[in-house]
C-alpha cells in the first residue's frame, strides 16, 4: 500500500494524484512512467509521471477518468492509499541541447509534457510549449508550463482561449511565421500524437511521441505493448515509450488499443452501479 | 493372482473428471488419501544404491521419505524432503518426474515406477493442511544482509536457506505478488496459488523481508544494493522473462498473445474472474496455441476452461519431441485439446479492424537431426492449409530480459544475454553477486531453478563466512 498525499479533480474529469513512493521519486526522469493498480482486484495501468519531489518522496500524475481503473483512482481521497505502484519504467527522454524544441501536450499529456519541457529548458534549448483542450475550462498547469518555456501557446477546439484549433495548427502557424524548429515532443491521446506527427513530417522535423498502448507488467515480460516502428516490432514499455512519430504504425496502435473496448465499458458500468448501491447504504 | 497384481501396481491419482474440470479452474488431481499413500510408499524396494536420488536435481532422500510415509509418519516425511527441497508441495506438482527420479526407479523397469511425485506432494500437503509445519531453528544472526532479486523458485529457495543460516534476507519482486512464475505462469488448476502463498508466508514467518513492486535495475541497481543499502551479497533469480514471437505476418494482430501475457492476465491478474477482477482477456472460441511445452499445455487448457469450443496445439515437430511433461499432455488430451503435430503456422489473417480471424499452416516432415539433437522439421511443399481461429497464443519459449543485466556493470553475459555463472556455485563474474535459474540457463524447470538456488545459497553462505 502506498499513501496518496493528494488527489484533486483539477479541471472537470482530469485528476492530479500525488503518491508517496520515495524510491521512484529518487530515480524518476523525464519521459518515464509508472504502473499503478488502484486496488487488489484492479488492472495494471501505465501513467506518465508529471513531477517528482525527492525531499517529499512523492511523484505526481495527471489522469483522465475514462474507465474502471481511473474511476477507482478518481475516488481515492487525499490521505488514502493505492494498492501497487511500480517504476520508474521506460527509457527516459534523451535530453540534450537541440536548439529549438517544441513540447506539445493534450489531455493528461499537458501534465506529462511538463518535465520534458523543464529538462529541455535546463539543457539550454529554446522551449516552445503548446497545449490543447476542448475548451478553456479544461486547461491546467498553464503557469508551470509557461515558466518552463520560452514561449507558451494555448489552443482550444471551441476557440474560448488562445488559438482556435489544436496543437498541430499552432505548430503550423509557428513554422509559417519563420520559426526554425529542431525537434518536437508530443504527449497526449493517440489521435493527437498522430496528427502532430503528420504535420511535423511535412516540415521534416524530428518528432518524438510517448506511446501509450495497453500494458500488463511493464518490464518487457509479456509483449502486450508491442508496436511497429519503422517496420520493426518494439515493446513500448522497455524500448520506449518514446518513439519517432514518423516511423510509428498508427493504424496498428489504434487497433490494438481497441481490443477490450466492450469489456472496458462493461467493467466501468458494473463499477458505477455497485458504487451507486454503496452510496445508498 | 488377481490380488497380487493389484497389490504391486501403482496407485492411480484420483482426478476431477475431464468433462468437468475442462470448464473449471480447480486443481485437477485431488491428491492421495493417507491409505493410498501408505500403499504406494510400500511398493518401494529400498534399493541399496537408489537410482531415484541420482535422477533428482536436488537429490531428495527419496527412499527415506518413502519409508516414513509407509510408517504413517507423514509430517516427518515432509521434513525429510525439505532437507534438500524447499518447496515440495510445488515440485510434487510440477516436476517432470517421468524424466527424473521416476525414470531411474527399479520398480519401473518391470512395471510402473513408484509415484514419487504424488507422494512428495502428499506429505507436503498433509503437513501444511494439518498445521504441522514447524519453523525450523534458525542459526544465530550473522549480521550479514543478502538481497534476493526475483521471488520465483530459485529466489525462494535461496531466501529459505540463507535465513535459516542466520543471515538477514530481503526478496525484491518486480510484480505485486510473490512467487514469480509459480504465481503468474502456472495456472491454478495445476498449482493452486494458496500453496505458493503458504510457502511465501512460511518464509516471512522465518523472517524473510519481501519488497514487492521493486524492479531492480530501475528503482535500485545491484550496485546500489551492495554499496548504499548495506547488502553483503546479492542473488539474481529474475527468470528469462522476454517472450519470443514467431517471424510470420500477422503477429501483432489483436487476438495474438504471448503465452506470458495470456497466462499473466489469467493467473496473476485473475482475468478468468472478469469482471470481478478488472483485467480483461480475450475468451477465444477457436484457439490455436503455438508450441508444445508445459507453457503451451497450460495456455491451451486455460483457453478450454474459459469456454473455447476447440483448442488446437500447433507444433512443427512430432509427438516424441514435445517438451511438455507426460502428465500435462495426457491431461490436455483428456480435455479434448487437439494436437496438430508436424504443422507450422506460416501467417495469420485479420479482419478490417485488425482482429485475428484465421491462419495458414504448412505440413512438415522430419528430416535429419539438428543441433538440438532433435530431427529437424522440413516443410512439405504445397501442403498449405487454412484454419479459423480468433485467439492465438505463442508459447515457443523465452529469451533473456535485459532490464536488470544492462544496469549491472561487471556482470558477464553469454551471447544470448543470459548471465554467466559457475554451475556448481552460481557465482557470477561480479564480486558478491550470484545468479541462478532461467536467467542463467534459459527456460528450464522449476526444480532446476530450485537446485541452482540451493547451490548458490551454499556458496553465498561460504562467502559471508570466509570471503569471496
Terminal CA distance of chain B? 63 Å
Q: How would the global form of chain B be characterised?
A: globular
Q: How many structural domains of chain A?
A: 2
Helix and strand pattern of chain A: EEHEEEEHEEEHEHEEHEHEEEHEHH
Uncertain stretches of chain A: none
**Largest protein interface, residues of each chain:** A-B, 42 and 41 residues
Q: What name does the CATH topology of the largest domain in chain B carry?
A: FAD/NAD(P)-binding domain
Counting DSSP H or I runs of 4 or more residues, the number of helices of chain A is 9
Q: Pairing-aware structural class of the strands and helices of chain B?
A: alpha/beta
Examine the secondary-structure arrangement and name the CATH architecture of the largest domain in chain A. 3-Layer(aba) Sandwich
Distance between the termini of chain A: 27 Å
Strand portion of chain B, in percent? Answer: 15-25%
Describe this structure in words.
- The complex is a heterodimer of chains A (281) and B (468).
- The radius of gyration of chain A is 18 Å and the shape is globular.
- By secondary structure, chain A is α/β, with parallel strands linked by helices.
- Chain A has 2 domains: 88 residues, Beta Barrel (Elongation Factor Tu (Ef-tu), domain 3); 158 residues, Nucleotide-binding domain of ferredoxin-NADP reductase (FNR) module (Rossmann fold).
- Chain A starts with a strand and ends with a helix.
- Chain A has a 7-stranded mixed beta sheet, with helices on both faces. In chain A, strands 5-6-2-1-7 form a 5-stranded antiparallel beta sheet.
- In chain A, helix 5 packs parallel to helix 6.
- Chain B has 468 residues and is of the alpha/beta class.
- Chain B has 3 domains: 120 residues, Fumarate Reductase Iron-sulfur Protein, Chain B, domain 2; 165 residues, 3-Layer(bba) Sandwich (FAD/NAD(P)-binding domain); 152 residues, FAD/NAD(P)-binding domain (3-Layer(bba) Sandwich), CATH 3.50.50.
- In chain B, the strands form 4 sheets. Chain B has a 5-stranded parallel beta sheet with strand order 3-2-1-4-16. A 5-stranded parallel beta sheet of chain B has the order 6-14-7-8-9. In chain B, strands 10, 11, 12 and 13 form a 4-stranded antiparallel beta sheet that branches.
- In chain B, helix 3 packs antiparallel against helix 9 and helix 5 packs antiparallel against helix 6.
- Chain B is globular and about 70 Å long.
- The model of chain B has no long low-confidence stretch (mean pLDDT 93).
- At the A-B interface, helix 1, strand 8, strand 15, helix 8 and helix 9 of A face strand 5 and helix 14 of B.
Amino acid at each position: 500500500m502506498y499513501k496518496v498525499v493528494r488527489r484533486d479533480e483539477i479541471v472537470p474529469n482530469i485528476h492530479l494524484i500525488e503518491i508517496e513512493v520515495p524510491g521512484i521519486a529518487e530515480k524518476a526522469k523525464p519521459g518515464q512512467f509508472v504502473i499503478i493498480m488502484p486496488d487488489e482486484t484492479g488492472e495494471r495501468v501505465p501513467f506518465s509521471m508529471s513531477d517528482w519531489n525527492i525531499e517529499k518522496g512523492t511523484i505526481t500524475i495527471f489522469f483522465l477518468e475514462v474507465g474502471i481503473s481511473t474511476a477507482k483512482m478518481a475516488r481515492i481521497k487525499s490521505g488514502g492509499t493505492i494498492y501497487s505502484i511500480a517504476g520508474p519504467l521506460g527509457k527516459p527522454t534523451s535530453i540534450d541541447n537541440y536548439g529549438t524544441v517544441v513540447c506539445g501536450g493534450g489531455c493528461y499529456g499537458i501534465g506529462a509534457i511538463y518535465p520534458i519541457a523543464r529538462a529541455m529548458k535546463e539543457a539550454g534549448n529554446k522551449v516552445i510549449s503548446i497545449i490543447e483542450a476542448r475548451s478553456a475550462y479544461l486547461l491546467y498547469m498553464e503557469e508551470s508550463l509557461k515558466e518552463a518555456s520560452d514561449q507558451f501557446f494555448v489552443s482550444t477546439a471551441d476557440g474560448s482561449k488562445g488559438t482556435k484549433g489544436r496543437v498541430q495548427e499552432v505548430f503550423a502557424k509557428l513554422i509559417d511565421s519563420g520559426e526554425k524548429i529542431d525537434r518536437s515532443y508530443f504527449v497526449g491521446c493517440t489521435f493527437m500524437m498522430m496528427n502532430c506527427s503528420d504535420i511535423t513530417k511535412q516540415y521534416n522535423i524530428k518528432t518524438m511521441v510517448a506511446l501509450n498502448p495497453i500494458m500488463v507488467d511493464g518490464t518487457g515480460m509479456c509483449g502486450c505493448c508491442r508496436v511497429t516502428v519503422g517496420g520493426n516490432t518494439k515493446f513500448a514499455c522497455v524500448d520506449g515509450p518514446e518513439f519517432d512519430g514518423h516511423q510509428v504504425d498508427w493504424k496498428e496502435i489504434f487497433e490494438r488499443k481497441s481490443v477490450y473496448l466492450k469489456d472496458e465499458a462493461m467493467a466501468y458500468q458494473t463499477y458505477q452501479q455497485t458504487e451507486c448501491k454503496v452510496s445508498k447504504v | 493372482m488377481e490380488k497380487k497384481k493389484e497389490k504391486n501396481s501403482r496407485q492411480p491419482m484420483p482426478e476431477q473428471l475431464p468433462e468437468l474440470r475442462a470448464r473449471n479452474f480447480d486443481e485437477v488431481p485431488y491428491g492421495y488419501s493417507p491409505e493410498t499413500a501408505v500403499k504406494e510408499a510400500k511398493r518401494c524396494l529400498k534399493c541399496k544404491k537408489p537410482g531415484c536420488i541420482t535422477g533428482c536435481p536436488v537429490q531428495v532422500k527419496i527412499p527415506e521419505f518413502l519409508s516414513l510415509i509407509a510408517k504413517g509418519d507423514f509430517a516427518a516425511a515432509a521434513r525429510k524432503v525439505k532437507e534438500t527441497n524447499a518447496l515440495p508441495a510445488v515440485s510434487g506438482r510440477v516436476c517432470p518426474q517421468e524424466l527424473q527420479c521416476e525414470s531411474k526407479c527399479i520398480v519401473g523397469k518391470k512395471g510402473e515406477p513408484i509415484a514419487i511425485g504424488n507422494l512428495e506432494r502428499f506429505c507436503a500437503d498433509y503437513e501444511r493442511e494439518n498445521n504441522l509445519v514447524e519453523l525450523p531453528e534458525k542459526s544465530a544472526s550473522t549480521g550479514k544482509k543478502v538481497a534476493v532479486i526475483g521471488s520465483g523458485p530459485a529466489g525462494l529457495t535461496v531466501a529459505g536457506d540463507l535465513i535459516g543460516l542466520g543471515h538477514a534476507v530481503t526478496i525484491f519482486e518486480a510484480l505485486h505478488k510473490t512467487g514469480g512464475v509459480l504465481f503468474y505462469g502456472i495456472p491454478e488448476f495445476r498449482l493452486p496459488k494458496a500453496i505458493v502463498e503458504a510457502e511465501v508466508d512460511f518464509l516471512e514467518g522465518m523472517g524473510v523481508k519481501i519488497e514487492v513492486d521493486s524492479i531492480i535495475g530501475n528503482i535500485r541497481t545491484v550496485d546500489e544494493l551492495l554499496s548504499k543499502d548495506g547488502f553483503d551479497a546479492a542473488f539474481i533469480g529474475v527468470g528469462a522473462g522476454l517472450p519470443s514471437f514467431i517471424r510470420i505476418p500477422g503477429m501483432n494482430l489483436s487476438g495474438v498473445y504471448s503465452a506470458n501475457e495470456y497466462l499473466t492476465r489469467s493467473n496473476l491478474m485473475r482475468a478468468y474472474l472478469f469482471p470481478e477482477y478488472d483485467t480483461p482477456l480475450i475468451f477465444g472460441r477457436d484457439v490455436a496455441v503455438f508450441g508444445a511445452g508445459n507453457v503451451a499445455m497450460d495456455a491451451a487448457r486455460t483457453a478450454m476452461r474459459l469456454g473455447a469450443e476447440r483448442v488446437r496445439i500447433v507444433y512443427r515437430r512430432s509427438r516424441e519431441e514435445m517438451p511438455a511433461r507426460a502428465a500435462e499432455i495426457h491431461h490436455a488430451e483428456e480435455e479434448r485439446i487437439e494436437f496438430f503435430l508436424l504443422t507450422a503456422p506460416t501467417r495469420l489473417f485479420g479482419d478490417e479492424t485488425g482482429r485475428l480471424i484465421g491462419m495458414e499452416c504448412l505440413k512438415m516432415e522430419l528430416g535429419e537431426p539438428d543441433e538440438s539433437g532433435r530431427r529437424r522439421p522440413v516443410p512439405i511443399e504445397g501442403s498449405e492449409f487454412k484454419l479459423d481461429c480468433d485467439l492465438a497464443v505463442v508459447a515457443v519459449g523465452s529469451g533473456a530480459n535485459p532490464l536488470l543485466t544492462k544496469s549491472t556493470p561487471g556482470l558477464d553475459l553469454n551471447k544470448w544475454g543470459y548471465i554467466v555463472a559457475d554451475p556448481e556455485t552460481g557465482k557470477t563474474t561480479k564480486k558478491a553477486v550470484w545468479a541462478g535459474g532461467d536467467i542463467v540457463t534459459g527456460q528450464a524447470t522449476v526444480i532446476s531453478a530450485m537446485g541452482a538456488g540451493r547451490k548458490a545459497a551454499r556458496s553465498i553462505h561460504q562467502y559471508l563466512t570466509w570471503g569471496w
